[in-house]
Amino acid sequence: MEKLMVKGGRPLMGQVEISGAKNSAVALIPATLLADDGLTVIENLPAIQDVRIYKEILEDLGAKVEHAGDEMTVDASQLENVMMPNGKVKKLRASYYLMGALLGRFGEAVIGLPGGCDLGPRPIDQHIKGFEALGAHVAQEEGAICLRAARLRGARIYLDVVSVGATINIMLAAVRAEGQTVIENAAKEPEIIDVATLLSSMGARITGAGTDVIRIQGMPRLSGCRHSIIPDRIEAGTYMIAAAGTRGSITLNQVIPKHLEPVSAKLREMGAIIRESGESVLVQGTDYYRGVDVKTLPYPGFPTDLQQPFTALLTGAEGTSMVTDNIYSSRFRHVGELCRMGADIRVDGRTAVIRGATPLYGAEVKATDLRAAASMVVAGLMARGVTEMAGVEHIDRGYEHLEEKLKQLGAEVWREHSYQRV
Ligand SMILES: CC(=O)N[C@H]1[C@@H](OP(=O)(O)OP(=O)(O)OC[C@H]2O[C@@H](n3ccc(=O)[nH]c3=O)[C@H](O)[C@@H]2O)O[C@H](CO)[C@@H](O)[C@@H]1O
Ligand SMILES: C=C(OP(=O)(O)O)C(=O)O
Hints:
Blueprint: E1 2-7, E2 13-17, H1 22-31, E3 39-43, H2 49-60, E4 64-68, E5 71-75, H3 97-106, E6 108-112, H4 125-133, E7 137-141, E8 144-148, E9 156-158, H5 164-174, E10 180-184, H6 190-201, E11 205-207, E12 213-217, E13 226-228, H7 233-245, E14 249-253, H8 261-270, E15 273-277, E16 280-284, E17 294-296, H9 307-314, E18 319-325, H10 335-340, E19 344-348, E20 351-356, E21 364-366, H11 370-382, E22 386-390, H12 392-398, H13 402-408, E23 412-417
Parallel strand pairs: 2-14, 3-13, 9-10, 17-18, 21-22
Antiparallel strand pairs: 1-22, 1-23, 3-5, 4-5, 6-8, 7-8, 10-12, 11-12, 14-16, 15-16, 18-20, 19-20
Bound molecules: uridine-diphosphate-N-acetylglucosamine and phosphoenolpyruvate (PEP).
Uridine-diphosphate-N-acetylglucosamine binds near residues 121, 123, 124 and 327.
Family: Belongs to the EPSP synthase family. MurA subfamily.
Keywords: Cell cycle, Cell division, Cell shape, Cell wall biogenesis/degradation, Cytoplasm, Peptidoglycan synthesis, Pyruvate, Transferase
Function: Cell wall formation. Adds enolpyruvyl to UDP-N-acetylglucosamine.
């Protein structure tokens, strides 16, 4: 078993380059399947497991893929509509985008229900509602979603819940539907704009991405293009939180400061110093933090994906902090592990109540999802002693070169393999 070891107590200092966004990458890669001709080149791809799995899925579908460094080139001209009820699609959440992309390209698809972080119920009813409105017949058979449409026709679709995945998935199918599709109550995350930008470069006509009404004019054909992925605001936010937690001072490069505002605002409210300049953000920790309340909301609210690392940071703040996750009902599996490290946190429904400041100390912990792992890394960096974290594979799904980046900032982190007796 592999473990991530974190020796805490050192302030993070220096500069860190932020990678391309995971949640954009895993939507842009399946979007390349919509190009009937030409090559689609995606730049600034993060080196993460979700991207590697997606590359394999594309190859299984008959696309020609070259992946070198942070660039992927996809030739989807010879694509085949392979059924994927099981296997790799179960390894990541974003495999649900194959439904929209293949429905758009072929008018039919069979895709297994997605995997991804276990955060409580994660239904896809809004995706299905959207596909049905576009004219698809959708059935669930033995854990797979079967979609078929004789013709896809543009429609007006009102999302009952603001969903990143449903908004993007409907866009993917709608770019190949006849006529206009209007998505109302659409999600506004920057990753949605990124996908709309790629699709527009491929020849689609999309307006309103980034607002809650998106209009898509379907096109009979789309072609390859070149696109560079936006910076990962969640990776950036994690380093900001870690810098504040260790009372360090770091500059994040290659970021869009506007995307980081929800976390910058909360860090400032606690007492940290944040300075923005062009594509960089400086985060400077201070000696005293006051507790704050955090409520996760769809963008531009505080992102649920930073709730877990932020909870770790709040153990170092004076007074009582309340962290409410309005997106996922049970995204608190990190809390028990933080308590092992000395935190005083009680979970009451959707809210974690954190009493601080409590000193943290290194312990053996286990991550059960990606951002739970990030919260334990933050806690480990803040703690006295060595933290041994199992569940490293979760980190690898979403953080490019985490140890290298942290080491460059002066942290002591390394991996260890232990062999279990049988
Ligand atoms: C690959 C990817 O981009 N993952 C992100 C995406 O996940 P994902 O796309 O799965 O999240 P959604 O935005 O769809 O989910 C938001 C909320 O809507 C609910 N819902 C969603 C769809 C649906 O059909 N029915 C429904 O009820 C979900 O259970 C959740 O409570 O956005 C989440 C919210 O910002 C992030 O935490 C994930 O990192
Ligand atoms: C929840 C997340 O990922 P996914 O939706 O891919 O499981 C995340 O990135 O925090």
